[in-house]
Batch of 4 targets.
Target 1
Amino acid sequence: MTLTVEPAAQLREQMRGVVITPTDAAYEEARQLYNGMIDKRPRLIARCLDVADVQAALTCGRDQGMLLAIRGGGHNGPGLGSCDDGLVIDLSLMKSVRVDPASRTVRVDAGCTSGDVDHATHAFGLAVPFGIVSTTGVAGLTLGGGTGYLTRKYGLTIDNLLEADIVLADGRFVTASQSEHPDLFWALRGGGGNFGVVTSFLFQAHPMDTVYAGPIFWEATHAQAVMRAYRDFLPSAPEELGAFVGLKTVPSMDPFPTDYWGRRACAIVGSYNGPVEEGASVMGRLLESLPPPIFNWMGAMPFPAIQALFDPFFPKGLQWYWKGDFVKSLPDEAIDVHIAQAADAPSELSLMHLYPIDGAVHRVPKDATAWTTRDATWSMVIAGIDAHPEQADRLKTWGRRYWNAIHPFNLAGAYVNFMMDDEVQGRIQASYGENYQRLASVKATYDPQNLFRVNQNILPAAA
Ligand SMILES: Cc1cc2nc3c(=O)[nH]c(=O)nc-3n(C[C@H](O)[C@H](O)[C@H](O)COP(=O)(O)OP(=O)(O)OC[C@H]3O[C@@H](n4cnc5c(N)ncnc54)[C@H](O)[C@@H]3O)c2cc1C
């Protein structure tokens, strides 16, 4: 009988949250994604408040044969948190965070941003490893892997995931952990949104309070020296140091020195997640061999402050074009290619970052989680970014040209959260390597019809 009822009316009766259709005043705001380059128009947006809402929305979408998208923080580059003409299961109202200081664990609802969690854990002198922009959704970041300032010391975000509550394609609610549905738990740790709608996560947190953190910028003429020194220093640096190297531009705004506004630059941005004096001394060892920077703003700050450092520069709605790669080594020739390509950046915000994938990440076996490229040394991202939609083609052209020039130095796959949806055939398989077949088998068990396909998609293994 339900099939004869209009889906929006049916869902409104069943849900405690909000159901938004294209004729509602809230629709334009509700459909917007973080990446302004993506313009999707779903038929229904189901803003869920609890697991029962998620089950109702999923059942409605599935029974009506609608395309389903799952939205956590809405930050995904290609906008995989939404879809055209389908149903979006939007978790952004599910925001609870509960810290258990005794076990140092944190229960996080799937609509939280990493800033929501940092706020809650900081009060207890704890932190969970997330990314470097605090408005990013915990759900998509975690399910893809999760890298950030704490990665070298505590591993990827998934290495700190203890369990996840999830609504499956058939509407069942289960908990996945080492002891319950271990195959599903394995796949969730890197396999993205392929297996169901995660409604909450349980994370291990770690003691974290004041850190020695911030950015250091050099003129682009010193980029070769800085990138080489960073590359050579990192393997012997204490794992307390989470620091990435990047090719960027000095923003044309206060408090940056006006003489350098708009000038290309090389940056190291880091957080020493240990005693402040120790951090200053470790960074001193790196800096002593390098030319004087334009500015060195590393200093003592609360951990959530470094987590949110980039937030003001990247408000919602900018144009973003992403390209990624895993990187094993960074020979001098590759550094020169980076510098030449970055010199041509199409806008002030466009950047290249190399995030460390070492330390604790390397201590987890490659087949322990779906995220397999644990022998990489960096995860590279090239991002063409600008406020103006008319620049979109220039951002794409630059990103593709840069990636084509540097990819021969890199590994075959990339971090799935740094990819658009225009990757060549086989890139997803390459990113999961020897774990891909096992992922396809788990997909066949939990989602044989590929209901969850608005993602970096893993096809169910043939029966
Ligand atoms: C400014 C910026 C900075 C970033 N920095 C980092 C960083 O430092 N480290 C890092 O690792 N990544 C980083 N990322 C990448 C980020 O991890 C991805 O964009 C990720 O997809 C964002 O998750 P989300 O929940 O906000 O995305 P959404 O767009 O909501 O969803 C992304 C994908 O995850 C799936 N998904 C979302 N929620 C659920 C759920 N509850 N259950 C099942 N599937 C779900 C969706 O189906 C979709 O495929 C950054 C992104 C941006 C835009």
Note: Residues 34, 70-77, 80-81, 91, 110, 131-133, 136-137, 139-141, 143-144, 146-148, 192-193, 197-198, 314, 417, 454-455 surround flavin-adenine dinucleotide (CB under 6 Å).
Target 2
Amino acid sequence: MSTALVCYYSKTGNTEKMAIRIAEALRKNGLAADLKKVESMDASDLLKYDCLVFGSPTYYGTMAWPLKKLLDESVTFHGKLKGRVGGAFASSGNIAGGNETTVLDILNALLIHGMVVQGQSRGDHYGPVAIGRPDERSVKSCERYAANLAALTKKLFP
Ligand SMILES: Cc1cc2nc3c(=O)[nH]c(=O)nc-3n(C[C@H](O)[C@H](O)[C@H](O)COP(=O)(O)O)c2cc1C
């Protein structure tokens, strides 16, 4: 079975709610998905997965430092994630508060790792976003995103 990781940082629970929905939907769509807080991870754990999805609250328009720290530590095996499926999601406080720039900053790191990143033709184009606590629209976006990532992962890692 193809494997996936949903790794997130969340201080007040909003990003965590998105992470839970994404992990559940990945499982529903046939992946063996682990859900982990970024603080509990060692960067080398990332090597175990076919699909890696990272979530963060928006802090000053970008990802929170614990996630940035993990990604920076992954330089020790730079190149080894080449070809794996990557994704990102974010929760911000405000509508134009930088959730998309947060998602794009995470995806930037994944692209530099050589990972495969899929955009979304409908809804949240770069990856799911929420304003604070995820509402019904955001939950649906998380579920649709996870279904797309699962389909791609199963294709690349049957
Ligand atoms: C240090 C800090 C910086 C923040 N910066 C932004 C920001 O630039 N734009 C924004 O819309 N919200 C900002 N917020 C609000 C959080 O992104 C928002 O409350 C988010 O839903 C928190 O997610 P969490 O519950 O997963 O911790 C900031 C919050 C903190 C604590």
Note: The mean pLDDT is 98.
Target 3
Amino acid sequence: MGIGDRFGKEGAAQLRAFQAAHDRGVTITPVWNKSNREHSLIGTLPEDVRREADNAVAQCQWRGDHFVDADHIGLGTVDKFLAASDFFTIDVADAIGKAATGESIAAYTAAMDRFVGELHIPGIAEPLSVTRASLNDIAAKYLFAVEEASRVFRHIAERKGPGNFVTEVSFDEANTPQTPAELFFILAAAAREGIPVDTVAPKFTGEFLKGIDYVGDLGRFTQEFAEDLAVLAFARKTFALPAGIKLSIHSGSDKFSLYPTMHRAIMAADAGIHLKTAGTTWLEEVIGLAAAGGEGLAFAKALYREAYGRYDEMAKPYLTVIAIDRQALPTPDVVAGWSAEAFKEALEHNQACPRFNIHFRQMVHISFRLAAEQQSRYLALLDANRATIEDHVFTNILTRHIEPLFLGTSA
Ligand SMILES: [Zn+2]
């Protein structure tokens, strides 16, 4: 399970949630993830994440594995992550649709020719219909991207040594979802390239916006997710991929309506899963500060006033993953009059609460840079309210994410 922490202060609180899950019989491996974009927005380095993760592990006496993810890297960005990371999310979405050579397309489609006809995948009700034309389409769309993943994988493996890191290949920032058939033949291509795919992140149907719930057709997602699990199990055996291969869900955090259906699917398939969820730890910090009242609440209100005034600048890196209705944002003057409780309730992800405002929540979510601009004051306030904030961070991860996804209980 991916976890994250913009300012690197909540590692132990998050890890304690994993310990609580472990005490209840669910073993989850924490993976600290921070993308290149996030590092550049607030001026942190991969080494900072490594230090935070290792410190939290020591402090909590965590006995299981833990990893540090170089999230969404490519050949141009991977090098600065090499020393600190042991999990690499190779993002090849931009390479989708670029042309592989005629020679490699011919070799690939010849090797896949044995699947032409009706492809029966255990767990999928209807056989997939595979034609030479559909194989050619898949090769035209995805083969170059898989070859690019292979180049990045080999670049990392030459420096870290094969077997010393976890390999994820991600397509989630593609324009269109991959069908189960596409996923199957992508995994075939990856296996031919010798990429030991530990986790694969397809793009799923629907929208995965930052810090708010899933927007899309839940029934369709449910079917697609179960079919993708079936594809992975079948591809693993057919192409000798790593035994522990998992689907990776880049959730954008807080996909509460998906957790029950994902829970049922992984239990039915006896499958593992990798869930990336990260950014809401920052929101729990703001909620904790606001709930503390006094200076903490004043800071949270001032941060919102600044964010509101600099909307375009805050939104620019996130335009494809937010849906903020600016008319539905409270004005800073209105927010200035809010009580601690009112601020907390507007921000906290409790869809049953009438005060909850998803536009306000997204606005604060993408404005973590503003806390970085006043970092010493922000960190001092976190210190002053440490117990309250850790309580929020711990409870958020455990009851809103781990329990519904891995234990099948609702928050
Ligand atoms: Zn992603």
Note: The mean pLDDT is 95.
Target 4
Amino acid sequence: MRLSSVLVIAGICVPFGAPLRAQQLILSEPPDPVITSVVDRLDLERYKATIKGLTQFGDRRQGTARNRAAIDWIEAQLKSYGCTPTERLTYQWQPKPPRRATIGPNQTVGGGTLRGNRRGTRPNVDSLKQTDLALRALNTPPTVPGERQEVYCTKVGTTHPEEMYIVGAHMDGIGWGEAANDDGSGTALVMELARVLSSPDVRTSRSIRFILWNNEESGLEGAEAYVAQRRALQGQESPAGSGKYPEPKWLGMIQHDMMMFDHGMPRADSSVSKQQRPEADVNIEFQSRSPMAAEAQKLAWIFATANERYAHDYPATVGQHMTNTDSDPFKDIVPAISLRENERGSQIGAGWDPQWHQPTDLFATYTDADFRLGLNAGQTTLAAIAELAGLTLVK
Ligand SMILES: [Zn+2]
């Protein structure tokens, strides 16, 4: 175990790596009325409508026409919000042999520990389990190896266009459903933040990039391609003297993956409550094994504080086992966190979400109490990013 991991787990804050600026460590107290007013521009019905829009493309599986159509639709929405110009990253995808993690019987991916009741979590690969025949037909064309794309747009900072936060979610899904929660809920969250922050009266000092990753479900290859292609471009002004930075320096990466369903631990008979549990929370995770753990942990606590100040209904909980999502390829380079409905390793990995990669991950499966958890994660990220990027409103 790395020394940094030991110190982080002990809860001791040790200076490590590039320090976050002091201004980034203290959220204004009491709540900033400007941030409050911007957070209040998020709306449950709009969030639901964006998720619903994504589900028209079925499971949006990578390497299919329905996946490409979803990217086109997302791009059209981003443009309509004024988040322009939109850009696309292009890369090649070929299937790879599965990577198997070697972990102990009660350990989880990411370094957590399994407790209590568990249920199976195998992704569905049986088309016949989708009883909606129209949806089954939509999801039938298989993935084909080859060229892939993913779309992003950027709000350019007024005083520090050369630095940015990356706010992401993956738009691809699997399992023969509608990928409404995994990860329509995160994709819609990022799109709604792009909409609110692209409003003509919103300024930020630093830049913010909104990106909808592809190929998360096949093994994070969309995020990996982004890191491989763009890491070395960070902070370069191009053309020289233009004041334009095609790849601002990465200040942090914030991923959103499965935002809505926190119905608690499975019962002993493997059933799961039909109701959102009243204790539902937003799980903010960093990775204690990363060399950036100390900085990522600070970022996680900034988000937890933003949740306390600005989110309306549900609290946030910080954990140290971020894993298996698009923040992974960033975590050793910059402070990276993920926001989720549950901890990925010990909770989702134990079967807390029975819709995960299943034909039942449909828009119609969820109630407003579920959608509202996703909206509260959006309120959390919007408030934290507003503070970190220096948001102001102009008349
Ligand atoms: Zn996911």
Note: The first strand starts at residue 86 and ends at 93.
